[in-house]
Amino acid sequence: MASVKREKFKPLGGPDGGNGGDGGDVTLIVDSQTTTLLSYHHAPHRHGGNGGPGMGDFRNGATGESLTLSVPDGTVVKDAEGNILADLVGHGASFVAAEGGMGGLGNAALSSAKRRAPGFALLGIPGDERDIVLELKSVADVALVGFPSAGKSSLIASISAARPKIADYPFTTLVPNLGVVQAGDTRYTVADVPGLIPGASEGKGLGLEFLRHVERCAALVHVLDCGSLESDRDPLSDFEAIEAELAAYAVEPTFAQGGQGVIPLNERPRLIALNKTDLPDGQDMADMVRSTLEARGLRVFEVSAVSHKGLDPLKFAMADLVRQARERLPEPEEIAAPEVIRPRSVRSRKGRSGEFEIRREERNLEPLFRVRGVKPERWVAQTDFTVDEAVGYLADRLNRLGVEDELFKQGAKPGDAVVIGSDDDGVVFDWEPTMAAGAELLGGPRGADLRMEDRQRPTREDKRRDYEERKAARAATQADLEGERRTGVWAVDQEINRLAGISDDETGTSDETDETSGSGTADEADTTRGSGSEDSHG
Predict the structure, then answer these.
(1) Packed helices 280-295 and 235-248: angle between N→C axes, nearest 10 degrees
(2) Which of 127, 158, 262, 396 is least enclosed by beta carbons within 10 angstroms?
(3) CA nearest 145: which of 214, 233, 200?
């Protein structure tokens, strides 16, 4: 707000415009009670509160209300190009997805000893606006993978307290189910990954939606259906098909791998669970394929989720893999003493390195100088270009920062184009080096700047050219006058004036004429005084 205090006996009590309030942030935070991202699918647009405008009488605007969004544990935040911004693991983990804007300054905050009554205010800076992608990747120690209807949901329901939906048709499970398993002194989590099919790594059957939940797991358990009624399927072909999809899937680097690097899915520790061995043909099928799988170096367990056959050995085998994976994690670093951050001095040296940079470019065969830096770009965004005094204030700030001196060093000439900012939000100026700093010393009404009234300001070249022309004209005039004096033009004029009866004061005659006239006047005065004396005595 740009305001001036007015009250009785104080018509101009000084500037009293308040500052604008900052905008609210948008923050993502992990909440254990949130299990899905479905709400963001139905309402994808979220925004924080706006800051209130400043008012007169030194009243600042209210701060905008921040928006906190709850996300499930294991949410990965990406930008529109797919780059990972944050990996939110653990209750309470947070990420500021968009920062609120900064409120503008009122004219009361801009007043100084020299600029007593600013007639302008600085604009607020808009907050961040971005598109992000949220992906949920289950946080589990062991993943159960296999074809649809292989019995994964039944198995996790048997070894944990999870109660997923179980039915006798493919793709009963559409979202992963997590279960906590206790095996001796080891407690770990198991994820029931929805069924995979050939081509899952290419996106078939929502394969990519399911495979991403396996990325965080330290070990895998292949659940093979030994009682399948399909004639074209058998446990060995199912295992090879799933292994091929795991090898083809590219694991994304995340921030929660403890420095171990990215381990492909097909290289992680694996166990084989031959399920449905309680069926008449299930045990026979398990006996046929067990030796082949063990020959490949795999540990095989014959289990039945219905009769709980062989579940305990499988649980303890999974606990061993989880314990080994946890032992490989690096030791947590000791928390060092917090570093004391001391604020930099406001009165820094002009043109300090790192505050801005100037690059020389070329556009339409004409030189162009681009100024990039946090301060210059922020100052341009804060300037109201409809107010001349605000533009002059911007010029003063840029000059104090050293932008004009650096432009001189870069070889900029008057009239060259100068861009502050990027091509999207930059502001283009025609550089005028003659604009001196010190807008607070210029007179004029509030909100006006005399430097801005004349849009066609002469450059240094124009001023130098005008000075040389005036100097040459003055020399020519002096030469003409000297020539007239030498030819006697002035003496002839004086004689003509004397015969015409024009006084010397009106013509400005020479010293010689003044002396002659003065002598005649003196004689006449003496004669007059003599006559007067004689008359007086008589």
Answers:
(1) 50
(2) 262
(3) 214
Question: Is pLDDT of 348 > 50?
Answer: no
Measuring CA to CA, which residue among 221, 200, 245, 243 is closest to residue 144? Answer: 221
* CA-angle at 257, arms to 97 and 254, nearest 5°: 35
Band of the pLDDT at 284, cuts 50, 70, 90?
confident
In 3-state terms, what secondary structure has residue 4?
strand
pLDDT at res. 537: 43
Q: Please report which confidence band the pLDDT of residue 534 belongs to, taking 50, 70 and 90 as the band edges.
A: very low
Instruction: Please state, as a whole number, how many other Cβ atoms lie within 10 Å of the Cβ of residue 212.
Output: 20
The answer to whether the beta carbons of residues 51 and 100 sit under 8 Å apart is yes
Identify whether the C-beta of residue 412 lies closer than 8 Å to the C-beta of residue 405: no
Please give the pLDDT value at position 213. Answer: 73
Alpha-carbon distance 360 to 405, whole Å? Answer: 15
Beta carbons within 8 Å of 309's beta carbon, 6+ residues apart = 277, 278, 302, 303
N residues, the chain:
538
Poorest-pLDDT segment among 5-9, 52-56, 141-145? 5-9
Task: Tell me which residue of 430, 432, 427, 404 sits closest to 417, measured CA to CA.
Answer: 430
Q: What is the DSSP letter of 188?
A: E
| 270-275 and 219-225 strand pairing | parallel
Give me the residues paired with residue 299 across strands.
Answer: 271
DSSP 473-487: HHHHHHHHHHHHHHT
- Find tokens 């700093």 and name the residue: 437
pLDDT of residue 149: 76
* pTM score: 0.62
Asked if 60 contacts 26 with a C-beta cutoff of 8 angstroms, the reply is no
